[in-house]
Amino acid sequence: MAGRGKLIAVIGDEDTCTGFLLGGIGELNKNRKPNFLVIEKNTSVTEIEETFKGFLARDDIGIILINQFIAEMIRHAIDAHTQSIPAVLEIPSKEHPYDASKDSILRRAKGMFSAEDFR
């Protein structure tokens, strides 16, 4: 990856992935593996978790975007990820609004600061 930036990976519903793909994030690595997973009704939790762990293991991915309602399905895997890169960001979807109380990354970040830090 010398001289190149890192990719954004997306795990999301069809609308979310389509929007990001139209924005130009779609890539295949040297093993022909895409940097996105479209979640459909018949997508298993095992497949979602395996894809997430696969994205964590790839050295060409710097950010993983995941719909929050999908993140809830694999919360244990997201909570187990403690490294800063790739960063895991939970995003809303069209049918499921963002709920900050469910975002484990945000809860972890809030724990790093006290009320005194913001005065």
TrEMBL record:
Q: Which InterPro entries does the record associate with it?
A: ATPase_V1-cplx_f_g_su, ATPase_V1-cplx_fsu_euk, ATPase_V1_fsu_sf
| Keywords for the protein's UniProt record, in alphabetical order | Hydrogen ion transport, Ion transport, Transport
Asked if the keyword Glycoprotein belongs to this entry, the reply reads no
Specify whether rRNA processing is a keyword of the entry.
no
Which is one Pfam family of this protein?
ATP-synt_F
Family, according to the entry, reads as follows:
Belongs to the V-ATPase F subunit family.
**Biological role:** Subunit of the V1 complex of vacuolar(H+)-ATPase (V-ATPase), a multisubunit enzyme composed of a peripheral complex (V1) that hydrolyzes ATP and a membrane integral complex (V0) that translocates protons. V-ATPase is responsible for acidifying and maintaining the pH of intracellular compartments.
Name the record gives this protein = V-type proton ATPase subunit F
